[in-house]
Amino acid sequence: MIQKKVCMVGVFGTGKTSLVQRYVHSLFSSKYHSTVGVKIDRKQVRVGETDVNLLLWDVEGRTAEQEIPASYLRGAHAVLFVADGTRRETFDQLFELRELTRSAAGDIPSIVALNKVDLTDQWTLTAADTAKLIAAGFHTLTTSAKTGEGVEDAFRWIGVATMKDAAPAAQAQVRHGN
Amino acid sequence: MSDDGDLSVRELTELRDLLFGGERRQLDELRRRLDTFELTPEEIAEHLPQAIMQRTNRDRQLGIALAPTVECAISESVRRNPQEIATAIFPVLGPSIRKAIAETMAGLVNTINRAIEHSFSPQGIRWRIESWRTGVSFAQIVMRHALVYRVEQVFLVHAETGLLLAHVPEDSSGDADLISGMLTAIGDFVNDSFEPKHTGELRAFAAGDLTVLVEPGPQAYIAAVVRGTPPNTLPVKLQTTVERIHLQWSNPLASFNGDATAFTSTQPLLEECIETVLSTDRAASKPGLRKFAWAIPVLLIVAALSWWATRGGRQWNTAMTRLEAEPGIVVIRSERDGGKWHLTGMRDPLARNPSLLLASRGVDTNDVVAHWEPYVSTEPALLLARARRVLAPPVGVTFSLNGDTLSVAGRAPAFWIVRAESVAPALAGVGSVDFSRVAPGLPAEMEAIAAEIERSRAFFAPGADSLDKSALAATALVAMKFRELLDAATTIRYNVSVTVVGRADPSGAESDNLALSRRRAFAVRDRLVSLGIGAAHITTDAIGNNDPLPADSPAERARLNRSASFVVRAQPSASVNGAERAR
Q1: 3-state class (DSSP) for residue B77
Q2: What strands, in cross-sheet order, belong to the sheet with B340-347?
Q3: Contact: B161, A165; criterion CB under 8 Å
Q4: Do B448 and B435 belong together in one domain?
Q5: Residue B294: what pLDDT?
């Protein structure tokens, strides 16, 4: 059984936790967020012939007062950034957050979930914004906690990305998002 | 020129060979060895034994490093020719097997002891009740009370990522990977949250009776979940395990990228850390006592023997004390001679039997030769006994002593009072007698019945001596009452009799009246006998018109005295009187 450490990082209130909670195995309650600052869940994905256990470190969201603890990012094999498509500032902070992750865990596969895509009338991001992300090396997709759109895709991408060295053939299965 | 040149080069080479040939070969060899820097087998063979010895003296790493190779070599050897290894280890195997069996047996005995201890001790019974009351199994109750500590789970966790490398026991929680992640996060959290930062690792945390011990290593750490109070030796054990894992699995640790397969083989090492220690496992409880348990029966036997040896003497002394305390017995001498006890003393005839007293204290009276001189004791108990024996008081009469004054109280027939008043002052030890609290008369039980009989009259017609209807009724009543009187008298040991007194009215000649009154008395007596009253209890008396019953008018007086009346006599039972007289 292969295990990978995946960090979920985002600004406070981007809906990280609710985005994944229906799709992961949870042992700990969300009160760990307010106490320890992190809550660990498990998501199993299949890459080629291999089952991969993604240990999701759902790190407490960044606020003006509280930086994300770098030690939680240490050793991560991939990172899932979550931004709220209806709040532009959460998008703007993605680049700072990536720097933080990079200094703690190095250059690791990174994916951005632009969340709350179901709230189309409040959507603030443009195609130019998405292009900016892709240009910066983020794999990008839109997600919705309400409809579940994009969530499984995000995990599958992470599974494949973390297994790149071990199973290059799996790359073929990746369906790049928008 | 070219030839010259060729010549000169050849010549120079030759010259150089001649001058420096030896040094050059040595130089080439040195250069070669410096370039390759590899030890030759000969050189290794030269230094290997010493190198092994030095490293073995320093630490155990060589052994640990060699272990897999040796294991591999042994299994290969066994595969090829099992006999070879079997022969080699046979001398070691035999004693080991014997030792293992002995230890297993000792363990079994210990387990049985503990089971018995738990089953029958008050504590065990309490635990059984608790088990019955709470519905929790007895084994769990014992565990809960006797548990010192138990290492329940051991995690081997990759330090950097928090990913689980291995976990024992295997069948426990399927969420070990989440827990190991969270343990790592908590460690990071503690490290980040409290000043000064990064001063060390989280080593332990506790909640209730659960403690998690963390033993860090550079690349992986061990976390042990312990219920109860972990001993100081446990962290050392965990540390050794972490070190061994870092040594033996250094490559898999260095290259770990999420695949924990290589660490499955650490499980036996981790399992060595799983253990349960109960308070009952600690032999320290009463080792001294248990060691000398054999002495208890020996002491009991010695005690029993010495008790048996001194028993006779102690029994005799106890019996003597009892005898000397007995009123009316004075022991003058007691000695052991020829296997028998010889006793000399004085005894009041009314005192209790000394042989019985000795026997009641466990003395075998066959071993006692006693000689008692009779004497009269004036001790109160004996004086009262003598008074009762001589005076034979009726039931209800009591004696007491006040100084040398004998006080008598109760109700007694007048004749007894008269006799007692004359006899009592003559009793030995009695100075004076007080009869002021004695009332004359029948005992209360009989008094009422006797009065009823004595009030009865059987009336006759003038000149007649046969019983008419009213006389028959009166006689029947007397017969009935007399039977009651007999019952009461028997109970309190009195003899009773009734005298039928025949009477006549004043008319007629006195001799005729006497004869008539006698016939009337006989008629009533016969009637009483026919009603079941024993003739021995009935006497008759005929008084004619002497001592007539009084009445207000002459006619009434005449009617009243044409009758038979009754007098009851009662006295303490003849057997008492008989005994009295015999004395």
Answers
A1: helix
A2: B329-337, B340-347, B368-374
A3: no
A4: no
A5: 64
Q: Is any Cβ of chain A less than 8 angstroms from the Cβ of B181?
A: yes
Q: Give me the number of domains chain A comprises.
A: 1
Q: Containing domain of residue A118, as a range?
A: 2-173
Evaluate whether residue B481 is within a structural domain.
Answer: yes
CA distance B189 to chain A (A): 6
B260 in A contact zone (CB under 8 Å): yes
Q: What mean pLDDT do residues B344-358 have?
A: 86
pLDDT digits (tens, 9 = 90+) for B145-190: 777 788 889 999 998 899 999 998 876 667 888 888 888 888 888 8
**Which of B440, B471, B491 is the C-terminal boundary of a domain?**
B440
In a domain? residue A178: no
Distances (CA, A) of B440 to B18, B146, B398, B418, B447: 172, 84, 14, 10, 11
| Within a domain: B97 | yes
Please state, for a pLDDT cut of 70, what percent of chain B lies above it.
89
| CA–CA dist B535, B480 (Å, integer) | 15
- Which domain range does residue B206 map to? 134-281
Alpha-carbon torsion (B570, B576, B580, B581), positive or negative? positive
Task: Give pTM, 2 decimals.
Answer: 0.45
Residue from the list A40, A69, A71 with its beta carbon closest to the beta carbon of B182: A40
In tens, the pLDDT along B13-41 reads: 888 888 888 888 888 888 887 777 777 78
A3–chain B Cβ distance below 8 A for any pair: yes
Compute the C-alpha angle A140/A144/A150, nearest 5°: 45
Distance CA A81, CA A102 (A): 13
Give tens-digit pLDDT for B252-266.
998 898 888 889 889
